[in-house]
Specification:
By secondary structure, the chain is an all-alpha fold. It contains eight helices and no strands.
């Protein structure tokens, strides 16, 4: 490849990346504002200034671009949660750092929260989609490992997973209504609530 051809190829690659980013940014805005059901590909393209056919150079439809947004959130959030749980030295640390990582992520990425909040129940979305299911399975696996290591009390792991995730989802909503959201205070509250409940079982 000649120098000129390399420059042209580089410009094309940059243009493609910029176009794809523009579509993703626009899609996030539209899905957040009117939800997946009300969104059309035309709605997304109108926000980009690109030609209408450009969308299909990158995505097959709104389902694919929506899933790309959800997958991006999962790719950034789930490793953080697994990392803090793996580093936990005791039960309190396992719970507190998990909640703090979760609440901090959304406090610093309110656009991600808005997207998920507007599309709950959508396959691929907030509660029912593959990213959430994968995250819950990872939490369950981490709890099992922590139980085996003697870090977490040996209680019903499925109930524990449900209790942690359910309280996190619900308390997150309240935190995000506050200005500014305070992930540290929120994590402290959620941790004390959860740990207090578990201790009642352990002390029996």
């Amino acid at each position: 490849m000649s120098k000129t051809e390399a420059v042209i190829a580089g410009k094309r690659a940059t243009t493609r990346a910029n176009n794809k980013d523009a579509i993703l940014i626009a899609a996030r805005e539209v899905f957040t504002e009117i939800g997946f059901g009300g969104t059309t590909v035309r709605d997304i393209i109108r926000r980009t200034g690109l030609a209408s056919g450009t969308f299909y150079n990158y995505f097959t439809g709104k389902e694919e671009v929506f899933q790309a947004l959800i997958d991006d959130i999962g790719a950034r959030l789930r490793p953080r949660l697994r990392s803090v749980r793996a580093d936990a030295k005791n039960f309190e640390d396992f719970i507190e750092t998990s909640f703090l990582a979760y609440f901090s992520y959304f406090a610093h990425n309110p656009g991600d929260y808005g997207l998920l909040r507007s599309n709950r129940g959508r396959e691929g979305g907030y509660l029912s989609g593959p990213q959430t299911r994968a995250g819950l399975e990872e939490l369950r696996e981490d709890l099992l490992q922590a139980i085996q290591a003697g870090i977490v009390p040996n209680l019903d792991v499925d109930f524990m997973t449900s209790a942690i995730s359910g309280s996190a989802f619900s308390i997150l909503d309240e935190m995000m209504t506050r200005t500014p959201p305070d992930p540290v205070q929120t994590a402290r509250f959620a941790s004390q609530l959860y740990l207090g409940g578990v201790r009642s079982f352990v002390s029996e």
